[in-house]
């Protein structure tokens, strides 16, 4: 993939907490991509980080610049829902740092994430994409996700309602 040779993907670690929080807060403050409406402190995001260990079905993969080690993005698999019967389903997501889009980082992250999940007892992955977001829809389609429905005006942020399209992928 052009433009990706200088990018490394690895599991997220405790030292990533501040830059990961900063990256996520950009999306909280500036976009409807997440429905969180208030920025987080690193300490508030720590339980999220710790809920994504290096093994198991709930992972955090981080893309960094090979030279500077700057975080360029991250991908996660998280519990789909809390009830036990959902344990073989995960919700996946990708966030790419502002200015790092179009370099294949999302694809590198998902390639790494799905490779890490290959040995886990998982049946389906789900992804919710706030609309419109053509780049995310294309990324998910490349990884075998298919659109299964759209929740209309399900979230309110920035004084308006947003739709969320839902995608699923067999694992």
Contiguous uncertain segments of 5+ residues: none
Output the structural class: alpha+beta
Computed Rg: 15 Å
Q: Report the total helices.
A: 4
Which sequence of strands runs across the widest sheet? 1-2-3-4-5-7-6
Shape: globular
The proportion of residues forming helix, as a percent range, comes to 25-40%
The termini sit apart by 24 Å
Average pLDDT over all residues: 95
Biggest beta sheet attributes: 7 strands, mixed
Q: What letter string, H or E per element, gives the SSE order?
A: EHHEEEHEHEE
Number of strands: 7
Percentage of residues in strands: 25-35%
Protein name: GNAT family N-acetyltransferase
InterPro entries: Acyl_CoA_acyltransferase (IPR016181), GNAT_dom (IPR000182)
Domain N-acetyltransferase: 7-171
Keywords: Acyltransferase, Transferase
């Amino acid at each position: 993939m052009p433009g990706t040779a200088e990018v490394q993907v690895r599991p997220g670690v405790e030292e990533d907490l501040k830059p990961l929080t900063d990256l996520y807060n950009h999306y909280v403050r500036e976009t409807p991509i997440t429905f969180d409406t208030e920025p987080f402190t690193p300490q508030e995001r720590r339980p999220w980080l710790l809920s994504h260990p290096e093994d198991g079905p709930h992972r955090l993969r981080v893309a960094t610049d090979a030279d500077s080690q700057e975080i360029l993005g991250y991908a996660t698999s998280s519990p789909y829902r809390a009830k036990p019967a959902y344990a073989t389903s995960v919700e996946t997501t990708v966030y790419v740092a502002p200015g790092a889009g179009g370099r294949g980082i999302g694809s590198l992250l998902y390639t790494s994430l799905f490779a890490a999940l290959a040995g886990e007892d998982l049946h389906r992955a789900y992804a919710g994409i706030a609309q419109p977001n053509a780049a995310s829809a294309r990324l998910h389609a490349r990884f075998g996700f298919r659109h299964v429905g759209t929740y209309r005006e399900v979230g309110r942020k920035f004084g308006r309602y947003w739709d969320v399209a839902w995608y699923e992928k067999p694992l």
